[in-house]
Amino acid sequence: MAEGDDRPAAPAAVPLDRLSVETGTRAGYAVARLAGSVELGNHEPLRERLVEALAGTRAALIVDMAQVTFCDSSGLGVFAHLARRCRSDGKTLVVAGLRDRVAQVFQITGMLAFLYAEPTVPDAVAWLDGDRRRSRPPLQAADRAPE
Fold first, then answer.
1. Residue 52 backbone zone (phi > 0: left; psi -120 to 50: alpha; other: beta)
2. Are 91 and 56 in contact (CB under 8 A)?
3. In this model, does residue 108 exceed pLDDT 80?
4. Which end of the chain is more exposed for a tag (fewer CB within 10 A), N or C?
5. For 124-134, b where at least 16 C-beta lie within 10 A, e where not — what string?
6. CA gap 109, 144 in Å, rounded
7. What integer pLDDT is reported at residue 16 of this predicted model?
8. How would residue 15 be classed by pLDDT, with cut points 50, 70 and 90?
9. Domain STAS: where (predicted)?
10. Does residue 1 lie in a domain region?
11. Which CATH number fits the domain that encloses residue 26?
12. Which pLDDT tens digit goes with each residue over 56-94?
C-alpha cells in the first residue's frame, strides 16, 4: 500500500492456508487486503490478524475482499465477531469489493445487516471521511450477529 499515509504492517503479507492477508493503513484507517479462500482451515489465524489490525486504529477497519473467491460459514463467523467487536469499541467495519459468490453469501445470510459494504477501498475511505450515502447505520443488532 503506497498512497498518502499508507504503510504496510510488518510482515506485509502473511500467507495462511489458501489465503493471504496484507495489512496496513490508508487515510488513517486500518486496511486488510485478503486474497484466496476464507474457510475452516484459516479462519482462526485470519480472525487474529483482523483483530490485531482493528486494535491498531481508533476509527475503522476496511477489509478488501476483491480477491476473495470463497467464504464459508467459519469465515462469516470471523466477520460476525469483528462486527460485534467494532460495535462494542465504537469503531466501524467496512468490507470492500465483495464479488460474485462471496457477495451472495454475505447477502443471503444477512451478514450485510451487521456491517457496511462499499464497492472499493477508495469508496470506503470516502464514505468514512463523510461522503456517507446511507442514511442509517447497519442494524443496531450487531451485538447479536450470528456466531
1. alpha
2. no
3. yes
4. C
5. bbebbeeeeee
6. 14
7. 72
8. low
9. 19-128
10. no
11. 3.30.750.24
12. 999 999 999 999 999 999 999 999 999 999 999 999 999
Q: What is the CA radius of gyration of the chain?
A: 14
Residue pointed to by grid coordinates 456466531? 147
145, amino acid identity: A
Give me 64's grid cell: 478488501
Can you list the alpha helix ranges (DSSP code H) found in 1-147? 43-55, 73-89, 100-108, 121-128
Domain housing 117 = 7-132
Q: Which three cell numbers stand for residue 50?
A: 483482523
- In a domain? residue 83: yes
Helix (H/G/I), strand (E/B), else coil: 141: helix
What's the chain's average pLDDT? 85
- Encoded amino acid at 44, one letter: E
Residues making up the chain, counted from first to last: 147
* Single-letter residue type at 50: L
**C-alpha cell recorded at residue 139:** 442494524
For the stretch 25-40, pLDDT in tens is 999 999 999 999 999 9
